[in-house]
Amino acid sequence: MRRRTVTAGSLEEILQATAPAPAPEQAAAPPAAPAPAPREEHGLRTEFEFELPRGYVDEAGTVHRHGAMRLATARDELRPQIDLRVKENPAYLSVVLLSQVITRIGAITDVHAGVVERMYATDVAFLQDFYRRVNSEGHTRAAVTCPHCEGGFEVDLSGGRLGES
Predict the structure, then answer these.
(1) Taking the model in full, what pTM does it have?
(2) Sheet holding 47-57, edge to edge
């Protein structure tokens, strides 16, 4: 049995090709009903603030430490799989994935793979852990133990330096 491989140009083309056809409009539409009330938000948090340990240094030499990351969608996790850079080097997957879910770093709102590539390794490792916590566990807290008294407590990884209030 031979396997046949078909390649599409992009994920958007695949999604458009497999999307269901819109329902045909009815010829005699009933009179328009009043618009439904907007849905009430149920407190789902979709964007999380963070502070980078070292900070991203842009071309002008400005250090950007505060940023925001949104929750990932299935599309965010699928898109890197068709990226040629990821196919050539699977380790590049986290760079592409992070560039899609980071909404801003400091004043930079156009966060792309090139921005993530120029980050310090400690900041990328922080963002990878932050991504995992936000998307897998749904929060940004981490349980820690005091090395002196061995007491346990939680810290919020999303912002502020350790020891600051």
Answers:
(1) 0.61
(2) 47-57, 63-70, 102-105
